[in-house]
Amino acid sequence: MTDTNDWARLLRRVRACAACELPLGPRPILSATPTARLLITSQAPGRRAHEAGRTFADASGDRLRAWLGLPPELFYDSTRIAIIPMGLCYPGTQEDGGDFLPEARCSQTWHAPLFAHLTQVRLTLLVGRLAQLRYLPDPRGSMSEAVAHWRDYLPTHVPLPHPSWRTLGWARRNPWFEAEMLPELRARIADILK
Length: 194
Ligand code: SF4
Known about the structure:
By secondary structure, this protein is an alpha/beta fold. It has helices at 4-15, 47-52, 59-68, 72-75, 104-115, 129-135, 143-148, 167-173, 176-193; strands at residues 38-41, 81-83, 123-127, 157-160.
């Protein structure tokens, strides 16, 4: 069982982190408490999440919540669901409209101490290739291959595409994702959270 004082101290340290030079400055965003049973490890907050101070506060979040069958009040219930991205701060946006990759030092610095408190987690969703490369037991192949073979990583991990608008075309080309994988994943998540 995790020590709540240790957890609170750790969260204060994370939220005070200013290790990186970032276009809009540091604003670490995560949602977690040690009782969480589902962990979502994504890429990094986008600009709207940065402005709102809340992870997935954008259209990508709406899409992810729809994929997982999670209403916002449950998605943001940190006692049940932890959301800890690979980069905790908004990394800035490139000219092509995509965000920069998050600072590698962020997950290297904070994930191990944070995850050490999440002892109740039964399933980790790896949203996007960066999280998959870091945490899938065997991350060979492409994002698409990893997601297509998602059952191979059960019962501990499930790889998912990033839920940005760029994924819409991919989902159309891979109809099994919405027709087969998501209903099964929703049932699995509902069972974990009940
Ligand atoms: S991205 Fe991570 S390491 Fe960098 S300032 Fe934010 S919390 Fe700190």
